[in-house]
Amino acid sequence: MVKGKMRKETAEKLAQYMKEYPLVVIVDKNLREYGKYVKAICTYGMQGKILFLFHSGRKNPDFTGARYAICLQEGEYEEIESLYYMYEFSGHIRMLEEGGRFGSLINYVKAGILTEEEAAEAFLHL
Fold it and tell me: How far apart are CA 47 and CA 26, in angstroms?
């Protein structure tokens, strides 16, 4: 019962974030070198209107350029990550991640197909 209550509270918190910010970005906890992508998104995007959600277990977190960032504990991060799939259609929430099976914008940057700025522009207009 406690887990269900926690999930409901997390869902309410995420819904509140989406009301307060035009864009909520969940930064994949496994994404390396995420700082430069966060900075590119903030440079190109809506300054001060993007909320970044990070996993609290990151060593030396890099929030450069992010005016609004929240570090989430393991359980809450996992719940928000699972709720992402329920809200992704809304356009208010995105996952910054490196695609495994399929290409991602980050893969295109690493391959030299896109610049970081072009990837940030595409990320904001998905």
Answer: 17
